[in-house]
Amino acid sequence: MSESVVNYKCPNCGGPLHFDSKSQKLVCDHCGSSFSPDTFKEKESPTQTDTEIHATSPDTFSKDEIQHLKAYTCPSCGAQIMCDENTAATSCPYCDNPTLIPSQFAGSLRPSSVLPFQLNKKDAEDKLASFYKGKPFLPKAFRNDNHIEDIKGVYVPFWLYNGTVAIQAAYEATRTRVFVQGDDQITETSHFHLDREGTMQFSRVPADASSKMPDEFMDALEPYDFQQLRPFEMSYMAGYLADRYDVDENKDFPRAKTRMEHSTCRACQESCIGYETCIPIHENTQAARTGTDYVFLPVWLLATRYHGRPYLFAMNGQNGRMVSDDLPLDWTKVILTFVIITAALMVVMFLLISAIGGAA
């Protein structure tokens, strides 16, 4: 079985091209030429070679690994590129040329749209430094001396779901009135039974379609501006990593469905205005999917290590929103801050007590 591997090369000098997030063009680092992504249509096959998938040595990989690995030959230097079965865009480890695998974008695997990177590697490093500054209890060594071990731009596969949610709900609500009658202050609480029903429409609710990506990270990176989606072209992938989806749209839909239902219930409760309390008695929802799009969204992944433990950071490649694992704490700073705050509160309480005693 043979498959094609593609490099994008500069028509002027033959150097490798990569997609530049600032100019939104394919750029050659050798001669400085730049090209619009739609200059290179897939059918034109910019630099392509048909390569046989090679068997891997059992001394190098386990049988299970062999089943999920593929090997391709780099069109630029002829080196063997090893990657897993879902890899769609990578780079040659020897010549560093961006390498694309067209078969991973064929047929139902082809995304309808791509959201191009707006922020580059330097932006990601700067955002991480700013992220550190907002964490006052980070150990100094982690902040100042802990270097990034790995940083990579990844186009993550996502499903975008359209749908509707119908709801029928009932709430127990209260409204309180306080008034004075003679020498007494009276609190009057009125109880109400509220019925609500309706339908909400949803558009482009995202759920990542890669089992490699932590769902909680991908959810926390939102929002994305989907108005900036562009029709998919493989050339947007040049210089970045990408995996095709390995979680199908039916399996992923329950995540989006849960989000739609929670949003509908929250909107329904918020419609109960003018009451001090509003407690749900029941909220019955029925969700229906009306459409699905397969898209690639931009994510920067940054990895570092501290005291032998790996830490992962992810950044929205469009707006710079950053999320992370639980970070280490400098317990000396935490305890010192607690002592200072406690001492300050004790001084304030002492002064208040003294002032009250003096007034008496």
Structural account:
This protein is α+β, with helices and mostly antiparallel strands. The protein is built from six helices and 17 strands. The strands form four sheets. Strands 8, 9, 10, 11, 12, 13, 14, 15, 16 and 17 form a ten-stranded mixed sheet that branches. Strands 2-3-4 form a three-stranded antiparallel sheet, with no helix packed on it. The longest helix has 29 residues, at 331-359. It is flat and about 95 Å long. The termini are far apart. 28% of the residues are buried.
Q: Could you give a short description of this structure?
A:
This protein is of the alpha+beta class.
SSE layout and pairing:
Blueprint: E1 2-6, E2 17-20, E3 25-28, E4 34-35, E5 48-52, H1 63-67, E6 69-73, E7 80-84, E8 87-91, E9 98-100, E10 113-114, H2 121-133, H3 140-144, E11 150-181, E12 184-208, H4 215-220, E13 230-231, E14 241-243, H5 249-270, E15 277-306, E16 309-316, E17 322-324, H6 331-359
Parallel strand pairs: 10-15, 11-14
Antiparallel strand pairs: 1-5, 2-3, 3-4, 6-7, 8-9, 8-14, 10-13, 11-12, 11-15, 15-16, 16-17
Pfam family, one: Trm112p
Protein name: DNA-directed RNA polymerase subunit P
Organism: Grylomicrobium aquisgranensis
Salient structural properties:
alpha+beta; 360 residues
